[in-house]
Specification:
Number of strands: 0
Number of helices: 7
Mean pLDDT: 79
Low-confidence stretches: none
Order of helices and strands: HHHHHHH
Length: 148
């Protein structure tokens, strides 16, 4: 947990204002999710939406919202499958320090791959922590400037 919070504080220092989409992209790339997969973009959308609406039911509500944003020809099943494929691809690569940091998967082969719901909700919670770190960092920085 300390490594994750340290990393989140590093990201908070890098960006003056919380840009959730940008940080989600960084996290997914760190985890090795291939950017060429359509599931990558669906994951970005899913995590950003879920951060803003944490009470959404992922299977129906979240996938439905993404399908609506994508327009005709895309349904919830395609979105779910594309996300699962992107996560699977990243999981298969393995060896990533980010998997250990965010999913506490020190012994990757003894830990099972997270389901879509687990993956999305875990990264959404990490983003919430990051936003909190940004707020704390901004308050601390403002306090130092004012001389508090």
């Amino acid at each position: 947990m300390d490594n994750m919070l340290e990393h989140l504080l590093f990201l908070a220092r890098r960006f003056e204002k919380p840009d959730v989409r940008y940080v989600v992209i960084i996290l997914l790339m760190e985890l090795g999710v291939p950017t060429r997969y359509i599931g990558f973009e669906y994951l970005v959308k899913a995590i950003v939406i879920y951060v803003q609406n944490p009470n959404l039911v992922i299977k129906r509500g979240l996938y439905n919202l993404i399908a609506e944003q994508c327009g005709k020809g895309v349904d919830m099943t395609q979105i779910e499958r594309a996300i699962r494929s992107a996560i699977e691809s990243a999981w298969q690569k393995g060896g990533s320090e980010a998997w250990e940091r965010y999913f506490a998967a020190g012994k990757r082969h003894s830990t099972k791959k997270p389901a879509n719901i687990e993956f999305i909700s875990r990264l959404a919670r990490i983003i919430e922590l990051w936003i909190g770190c940004c707020d704390t960092y901004e308050q601390k920085t403002l306090g130092e400037e004012v001389g508090v």
